[in-house]
Amino acid sequence: MFYTCPSCGAINRIPDDQHNQQGQCGKCKSALFNATPVALNDTGFQRFLAKNDLPVLVDFWAEWCGPCKMMGPIFKELCAEQQHQLRFAKVNTEQAQMVSQQFGIRSIPTLILFRQGKEVDRLAGALPAPQLRQWIAAALQK
Ligand SMILES: [Zn+2]
């Protein structure tokens, strides 16, 4: 399974039966599972989707958006909980305008779940942790 390092972006290959364990980046030696969503920008976005075999959940947000700020800690909490099942990433829509435009982000927060680089489901608006957990579980079944 391919898994990009959250710290340096290096592509790591983890044996499929070992991705539930803690791992270290082969290049920079930092933890591969650090319970923190990865911040993505226009340049790194496609590569991140292409080089991770786990589904990727992206939170499109902005600094000025109140509901986004409310959802930030919830997203991080779920990341710590489910980081071995999916990758959690954040896109600042003010900085990553190309990506935001490409996916037609009209309101924030918007969450998009990608599998093998393709959009599987999206959610507009913030949800409390239990409902967000349910939405993720349902989206992963699609
Ligand atoms: Zn690294």
> Quick one: biggest sheet?
5 strands, mixed
Number of strands: 7
Question: What class do helices, strands and sheet pairing give?
Answer: alpha/beta
Approximate shape: globular
Radius of gyration: 14 Å
Instruction: Give the proportion of residues in helices.
Output: 25-40%
Compounds present?
zinc ion
Mean pLDDT: 95
| Measured distance between first and last alpha carbons | 21 Å
The CATH topology annotation of the largest domain reads as: Glutaredoxin
Which strand order spans the largest sheet, edge to edge or round the barrel?
3-5-4-6-7
Task: Output the number of helix runs.
Answer: 4
CATH superfamily of the largest domain: Glutaredoxin
H/E order of the elements?
A: EEEHEHEHEEH
- Whole-number total of structural domains: 2
Low-confidence runs = none
Family: Belongs to the thioredoxin family.
InterPro entries: Thio2_N, Thioredoxin, Thioredoxin-like_sf, Thioredoxin_CS, Thioredoxin_domain
Pfam families: Thioredoxin, Zn_ribbon_Thio2
Organism: Oceanobacter antarcticus
